[in-house]
Task: structure prediction
Amino acid sequence: MIRPLPILPLARDPASRFLPWLIAFMVWLAGLALAAAMQLSTASDAWVKGVAGRLTVQVVPLADEAPAALDARVARALSLLRGTPGVARAEPVPREAAAALLEPWLGQTGLIETLPVPRLIDVVLADAAPVDTAALEARLAAAVPGAALEDHGLWLAKLVTLADAIELIAFAIVALIALAAVATIVFTTKTGLAIHREVVELLHLIGARDGFVARQFQAHAFWLGLKGGGAGFALVAATVALIAYLAGRVEAGLLPPLALGVREWGALAAVAVAVALIAMVTARITVIRALARMA
Amino acid sequence: MTEDQDVVRFQNVGMRYGLGPEVLHDVSFRLRRGSFHFLTGPSGAGKSSLLRLMYLGHRPSRGLISLFGHDIATTPRGALPDIRRRIGVVFQDFRLVDTMTAKENVALPLRIAGASAAQIEEHVPELLRWVGLDDQIDTRPPTLSGGQKQRVAIARAVIARPALLLADEPTGNVDAEIAMRLMRLLEELNKIGTTVVVATHSEQLISRFDHPQLRLDGGELAVLPAPRPAPAPAADLRGAESA
Result:
């Protein structure tokens, strides 16, 4: 877009000095909210992809039960599961793998071997055939005392609902920031119209169309928006990089890896451009409406 | 005189500012294409208000105004800029843009009309030379004298060769020689078909030229025939205008 030679000295207005910073702050807030929403969406997808179509069967050791008897109950459970239509695969989780899960709490001691740790069976369901998990659990409990089926879908659904709610809130924050940006541009444009009222009136009287006058303001608002948007995007990039660095230092995988892809960075850059376009359109509408009240 | 030759037609026009008293009452007159009129009357008679109506700076509170055959009350708002571009105005307070040079100020109507940079470069400096401001082309209004500002304002009003030229006290701040030169410029424009209205309260200026008058008094208008011109030393003009 070629910047037209300005007639109105809008660049000298006080608003022109603070507006880019205000826009940068808004883009920063909106960018962070959007980055959080996108990151949460990625994590939520990963959770769903990781546990969807899987069940875990837990066989709890009975009092004074010999290891051989526990092995026999696990084998019965495996047999029942493998014979169930819709179950693609059922494999016992090796004791070493179960011990590794407990290691962060108990340490590398022989203590785990002496504890009545439940035996786990990882069940993978076939995509095509749905399994009635309630019926399977009842059959399992009847055939193998102390066996329990855990359906990840229940807690996953709650987690996904929470993630969706947070995403929605983030988008609401972005929308509110956009509204605040519109209000700010309306205010600064009206201030500009008041400051340059005499020149605007002169242009109007010597035959300038409303669009000609509006172009003066909209071009100015676009450049201010682009400057502020660019600064805001730089702040977002710096903040995301800082959070990613700090998150990477947290051990034990408590936080999902913070990594934005090209598409996500593109969306954040689009916020900066969008705010410039919002500024331009808002300034134009404000000026056109103000001029419509002139004789 | 036929109606389609009328550049300006006022019929029972009244005007008030806001809810204030009426400043013009039942004003009716016609200006034929190519005519030259002085708009006279004492201070506060409504001369500037009448000009304001003619350059579409204000809407009448009643009556009919027709410009170039267009009834202003029924003309769509989008068509008004085209009508305004056919009108050149010399405002009493000049209304120059302080942040622009004399050349840029004069070029404004051309820019608004979409003229090319080459056209602007060709015509604007030439006109500024003609009004005696060739050494002030790149000067901004705050550093110009009152008379120089007035000449820039006149140059801006005539640069686009308007069909109707409205000048509010156009020689009030210039010396006698420049005043005569500016009046000759207005007469030259008039000779090539521009309808000219010059508002002034100077009887001496009016008496120098053979033009009819629109005389306002107390918000009411009377059309007076042209007086017999009485040439006099140009030096008198300045004193008469600034009186």
